[in-house]
Amino acid sequence: MNSLGVLLDIPSVRLALVALVLGSVALPIVGVFIVGLDIMPVRFAMMHVALLGIAIGLLTGLDPLLCALVLCGLTGGALTPLARSATGLSGAMGLLMTLAVAAALLVLSLSGVNANGAFELLWGSILATRPADVLALAVLAVVVPLLYVLRRRDLALLLHDRELALCSGVAVERLTLILLVVVAVAIASAIRLTGALLVDALTLLPALAARRVGRSLPAMIRWSVIFGLVFNVGGFFISLILDFPPGPTLVLLGGVCTLLLHALPAVSAPRRKAISR
Amino acid sequence: MSSPPRGLSAHAAPLRLAGVTCRHGRLTAVDRVDLDLAPGEHLAITGTNGSGKSTLLRAILGLHRETSGLIEVGGARAGGTADWARRRSEVAWVPQRQTAGRFPLLLSELLASGGHVERSVRAAGELGVGDLLDRPLGTLSGGQLQRAYLARALGQVAAGAGLVLADEPTAALDFAGQEQVAAVLAELPVTVVVVTHDRAMVEACGRVAEMAAGRLREIA
Ligand SMILES: Nc1ncnc2c1ncn2[C@@H]1O[C@H](COP(=O)(O)OP(=O)(O)O)[C@@H](O)[C@H]1O
Ligand SMILES: [Mg+2]
């Protein structure tokens, strides 16, 4: 057992905590967007695109995180036409994913960098958080809630049904573009915290838990942020106290809580009938 | 030709289709359809399942991509994004498959999306779903959802839509509901196209057409 007080005096631990709190504001909302747009394959492909961005950064000597952010943002934007049908997006993602990884491996071998080095970056570690990562998350923590507040009505309609949104005066193409770019950039910045394989802990788990208790978009957004904070900060403290690796601990805490929420009878929504998904 | 019983709305829009063809890949779902509706005229479209009725209505809203031919609402064609946005604000739509959606949307939010909250909420009350405003659409029954979408469409008309496209709006309703909705649609002072298999609804419309294998043929 470690003493929390002592650990919290370590600068890297404090920086990690700040990053997690900031991430808990923006990333769960992004998770709600991902669930609502039904674009889970997109975020998976984005992790691979982020790897390509990191590889390009290593080749050119530019900042790998910045390259990953920019490349993911551009790719997200370029996907907008495919979002007209959900199948269009998920179908293309396998291709994008494979191409991105192949390109990343090619770039890595050209740059003479050991591929493991790049994968290490992709693996990420909360305690290796740099001020630049915190800055990226801070920007997201402002931009994402702002996007939600300013476009609440449009988002609720688009996430519910694209055609209903089209017929309600929502600028669907533009909003989809913005959402895809935000999702892509958020994934790229979250990768630094938990690593690519565990990004879901920060985005999807709080959103999935929130879907269980929230009956409307505003309620889901609120709950997702609450769950995000509980999973991330709670998991982080547990990992510190028990001296576990933080990433997996966060994910397991979030995963177990989400599972429990879905297993328990719907207490908070007594009138709700079973909805087949 | 018959005019609606009440006075015509200033928004009532003419609808003109010429040589409209819609494909689903290699299938021709709508085949060279011509139609002229004067402002305020009511047309019922009947026809077997799969004859292209829903596809035709969706094409008017720009929701069906593989469409060719001339479609004018209020004398205007739609080309760019801005045109289509205006078209969709001029046309109220009651979709055949009302979505319960992937994501929770409250009935109150659906009603507000029609552009005239007050009228939609009042219509929801008249149609018997007024006490469900804070319910997510996913928890409504098929008939309740259908009434909700109809209430939204009435709000759209109040907000200035001059053409109503109703796709089997009574399919999920009980007998009393069918009569009520037929009466509500018949009284609308705007242009109406209603796809229906309901005799009372057909009789309430001034014009009747039948769709068969993508071809539209006027029968009354
Ligand atoms: N998304 C789709 N993809 C392929 N074919 C479709 C699709 N939607 C409808 N169709 C086909 O187009 C034809 C017309 O469908 P539809 O307009 O829905 O008919 P109706 O409304 O008259 O029952 C049918 O043969 C149907 O199977
Ligand atoms: Mg149909």
UniProtKB/TrEMBL annotation, chain A:
GO terms for biological process: response to zinc ion; transmembrane transport. It is found in: Cell membrane; Membrane. GO terms for cellular component: ATP-binding cassette (ABC) transporter complex. It holds the Pfam family ABC-3. The keyword Transmembrane helix applies. It comes from the Bacteria. InterPro entries: ABC_BtuC-like, ABC_TroCD. SUPFAM superfamilies: ABC transporter involved in vitamin B12 uptake, BtuC. The chain crosses the membrane at residues 15-37, 49-71, 91-113, 134-150, 177-199, 220-242, 248-267. It is a multi-pass membrane protein. The keyword ATP-binding does not apply. Keywords: Membrane, Transmembrane, Transmembrane helix, Transport. Belongs to the ABC-3 integral membrane protein family. PANTHER family: ABC-TRANSPORTER METAL-BINDING PROTEIN, METAL TRANSPORT SYSTEM MEMBRANE PROTEIN TM_0125-RELATED. This is Cation ABC transporter permease. It comes from Sphaerisporangium rufum.
Automatic annotation (TrEMBL), chain B:
SMART domains: AAA. This is Antimicrobial peptide ABC transporter ATPase. Residues 15-219 form the ABC transporter domain. It comes from Sphaerisporangium rufum. InterPro entries: AAA+_ATPase, ABC_transporter-like_ATP-bd, Metal_Ion_Import_ABC, P-loop_NTPase. GO terms for molecular function: ATP binding; ATP hydrolysis activity. It comes from the Bacteria. Keywords: ATP-binding, Nucleotide-binding, Transport.
